[in-house]
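Question:
Now give any protein.
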Amino acid sequence: MSSSIWSSLPFVAIWSVGYWAVHVPHLLFLSLRNTIKPLRPVPQWSYRLSMGTAVLRAVFRYIGALRYQQPLQLTPGRSGDRFVRIAPPADASLFRGVFGAPSAMAKPAPVSAVWSPAPVVAPSSSHPSDGRRRKVVIYAAGGAFVTGFDPEMSSRFTSALVTSEHFGATNLLFVQYRLATRADPFPGGVLDLFTAYQHVLGLGVAPADIVLIGDSAGGNLVLALLRYLVDQKLPQPGGALVFSPWVEITREAVVKIEHSHTNRYDIMDVPVLFWGVDAYRPKGKALTQEEEGYISPMDHPFRLETPLYIEAGGAEGLLESIVTFAGQMADVKGNRVQFHITEDMPHDFFVAYPFIGAKKESCEALKRAKLFLEG
């Protein structure tokens, strides 16, 4: 939790009681109103989708008001031997360009991650290879760069999708990248994703057998990592999927969302987006165009060596920027990009599927992505 009036725990407790004293009755009201289909925020939505987005929106508004950040997992806990604490690569020459600039406000650091359903272990005399070909997903979850989630629960939900027949991965590594603060902004999160990627390569997994997946702000980090791997001529993954990627990281862009009709109902609350912009964008230094491209990729398309699948919800506030960015990336000569809109879905329906009843839509998105990557 940030050091502010919220550092007074009694005040937080009192404020929290007041917050939910207002919002619980409102949610109860919505539970009645949403039984009438024409009165739902999007008439095509199911009752579960309508209520799920309303509850998640209230939770994000609460988190944003408190500026609460999920503590990073430092011990195995419930994850047991699936938990791994990854040291940054010993080869300092891997951190160059925007990652190694003396002015970079974030430096390489150890990263926590959780494997699901089981860890990948480097072949050795005590762990001989079983001869199976691994298809490993490295996953970066969303949260506007500033909010985290229970890694055990989140990794299980996501693993259930990507290891199903719809996508066919064998293992998922859920990366707990550091959450942004003014003292630890860009490139912290993408540095952590790069460290996780190097770790998986070090386990003997071929680059072509690695797929990067991210949603919302996690999708932004995946795009930044792809840009870095190309810029520095490093091994490229076999594919990348970004769901509802946040590609325009500016206060002006958030103001546009604030004034859009989707702000009445979409999952991600605008104050959290403002918090994310202020925390992730470095303060007190002039950003180069190169750094801007890494932070806010819209209007900064780049050459890809990896097939890129982009998915968005047709009823989400980020849709306009995602459409523009997808077109910009597809227009770069040599890029292989596929973009799809799932009609009537809110922001980040892929990761929110257990709460809003969007498993069918999420599985169909993965099937499309699989066909694209294999094509």
User: Anything to note?
Assistant: The radius of gyration is 20 Å.
